Structure formats: C-alpha cells, structure tokens
Amino acid sequence: MRSLAIIAAAAALAVAGSECALSSSAQAAPKTSYAYGWPVKPFDRPHPVRGNFGDPRTIFAGPPTERTLLSGPGAFQFHDGIDISAPDGTAVYAVASGTVKSVVRDWIAVDSGSGRSFQYWHIASSVSVGQHVEARVTLVGHILRGCGHVHLTELNGAVAVNPLAPGHLGPYEDTSVPITASVGFRASVTSADLMPELLRGRLEIVASVHDMPAVPVLGDWHDLPVAPALIEWRIQRASADKVVVPTRVAYDVRNHLPAFGDFWRVYARGTHQNMSVFGKHYSYMQPGVYLYRLCPGGFDTRNLPDAVYELVVTATDIRGNHSSYTQRFSVHNRAGVVGS
C-alpha cells in the first residue's frame, strides 16, 4: 500500500511430498469493454502491473529472522490498488474526468462523481485542489524519483475496488496462469508441515500461491510475483473422486478487499511482500512469499472417516485463467493407529 511503500523506500535508502498433480487452463480471455484507460501513455496499450490488488504489504519491525517472520510486529495491509510500472519522471494523466479533492505531498485524489474517485500515488503533483481535470488530457503529475511506478486506487463509495476487474481499467488482457506451488498441513499456523500420510485432529491448511504480471516488468522488479484474484478448495475421496467437502472460497479480491483486520486470517505467517522490509534491512530484488490459510481457525479431520483423500486447490486470476493442484492425504483418527 502507499504508506508502506514510502517506508520501504526510506529503508532502501538506509541500507524476496506426497503424491500431487498440477493441471492448468490458460483461457484466451475475450476482449472486454472498459471504463477508463491507463494513466500513462499510450493510454490504449496495456502496461506492466508489478503489484496486484490484494497483494500482501508487509513491513516488519524486527530483523530478517524466522522469529520476526513468524511472530514479529509490524505494518501489514492488503494492497488497495495496483502498481503500474513506469520509469521515474513519467507523466501521469487523469484516467477519468473530475475535480481534485486532495493534494498531499506524493499523492492526489480526484472525485469523478457518482461516488467514484481515484487516487494517484508516488507522483509530484501538477494540479491543485478544486481544479477540474479531463481524462487523458490533464497532466496530474510525474512519477517521483526512486519509485518506478504509479499506484492507482479506484474507490466506489469510499470502498476500494479492483481496477483490473472487467469493465474498469483497460485495455487489459492476461493469458498467464496462477500457480499453487505447495500445500501444507500444520498443527498450528506457524508450525512445521506435517506428513500428509498421517493426519489427525484439527489442522491448519496453508497453500503457497502466486501469479505473475500479465505484461513482464522490466528492471529490478522483473520476475517478481503478484497475488491471484481467487483461491478455492475442496476435498474428495481419493479412490472415487467423490466430493466430501464442497468447494469453499479462501480468498477473493475480484471486486473488493477482505476486511482490514483480517490480514493474518487470510495470509499465513511466513508471508512477506516482494522486497520486504525487516527493520532497517530492505530485501532488494528478493521475491515475496504468499501463503494463504485455506480454513482459518483450522479444519477438523475428525469430521471425516479414516480414509485417503485429495485436497484440490484452484487459483484463478482476474481474467479467469486458473490452475488446480491436488494434494493427497490420509486421515487416521481411529484409536490404535500407529502414531496415536
């Protein structure tokens, strides 16, 4: 988020099993109409997005240690917009006409009427409060030195909405597929992964999921991940593909963000953003790790008969491209089983 990026920039100046199967579907997303163009030229061409709506934004107060990562304090937020990569000094234009409502050091807000407004962050402003701006015409500022991007937030009734959702920013196309890298079962959200061959009692289920930008990002942020738009899961019998736990949604930012205070209910400890800050240490060029709690508070395996099952995790991006990852596991709650 914007405030986190400011601290991160300051820190940078001061100083990333069991049988499983992966299937994917890269759907050729149909061209969709859009409400507004890009804030940098050319307005009608997709630009690299290095930060997605809903990405984890993490600044840890302690040093880069496992203890800090798993239990340290800090500032943790969902990214409330998108980061459009562009060189420092790039001209930024209004995406929608309206009236400038705020000008604050490195960002401005424009009211476009009907409850919709836009914020442009990491820019040196070229407008003043009360000024009328025209879409694609009015220069609102230039990207500040050392930022390398403009952060765009779209608000509807003061609620942040996903600018990449169909019918918002465009043109935007995406044919990449989000990936679930792993699924782990844990006794607690911060403990080590258990062996899927023998699971019992209440467990936390943590999935490592990421996507990549639709347009490759150049420079220091190349090959760094972004968050998907949707994560779902279900459980089925391994022998018959019979669904025993219907599809549940673990994460969904296709339209809005989760509740502000739910960061560590959505993300599991161990999560950190790209180039995350740990105290005075800036993790230059280091990729983030995105860990999602599929069932916050734990899933009780005692609700299932002892048997072999498959957990199927499906990750989907904002254009519907998706992949599914299947993790096989065995439930052994019955007394007398080895390990009880």
Helical content class: under 10%
**Number of DSSP E strands:** 24
Structural class: mainly beta
What average pLDDT do the residues reach?
A: 91
Strand content: 35-45%
The helix/strand series, from N terminus to C terminus, equals HEEEHEEEEEEEEEEEEEEEHEEEEEE
Q: What is the rounded Rg? A: 22 Å
Spatial separation of the terminal alpha carbons:
46 Å
What can be said about the biggest beta sheet? Answer: 8 strands, antiparallel
- Low-confidence segments, given as residue ranges, are 3-30
Q: What general form does the structure show?
A: elongated
Number of helices: 3
What's the topology here?
Blueprint (H helix, E strand, L loop, with lengths): L1 H13 L5 E6 L23 E3 L4 E5 L5 H6 L2 E5 L3 E4 L5 E3 L4 E7 L2 E7 L2 E6 L1 E3 L6 E2 L5 E5 L5 E8 L2 E3 L17 E8 L15 E9 L19 E8 L5 E10 L10 H4 L10 E2 L2 E2 L8 E3 L5 E2 L7 E9 L5 E9 L10
Parallel strand pairs: 3-19
Antiparallel strand pairs: 1-24, 2-5, 3-4, 5-13, 6-12, 7-8, 7-11, 8-9, 9-13, 10-12, 13-14, 15-16, 16-21, 16-22, 17-18, 17-23, 19-20, 23-24
Report on this structure.
With 340 residues, this protein is mainly beta. The protein has 3 helices and 24 strands. It has helices at residues 2-14, 66-71, 263-266; strands spanning 20-25, 49-51, 56-60, 74-78, 82-85, 91-93, 98-104, 107-113, 116-121, 123-125, 132-133, 139-143, 149-156, 159-161, 179-186, 202-210, 230-237, 243-252, 277-278, 281-282, 291-293, 299-300, 308-316, 322-330. Strands 2, 5, 7, 8, 9, 11, 13 and 14 form an 8-stranded antiparallel β-sheet that branches. It starts with a helix and ends in a 10-residue tail after the last strand. 43% of the residues are buried. The model is unreliable at 3-30 (pLDDT under 50).
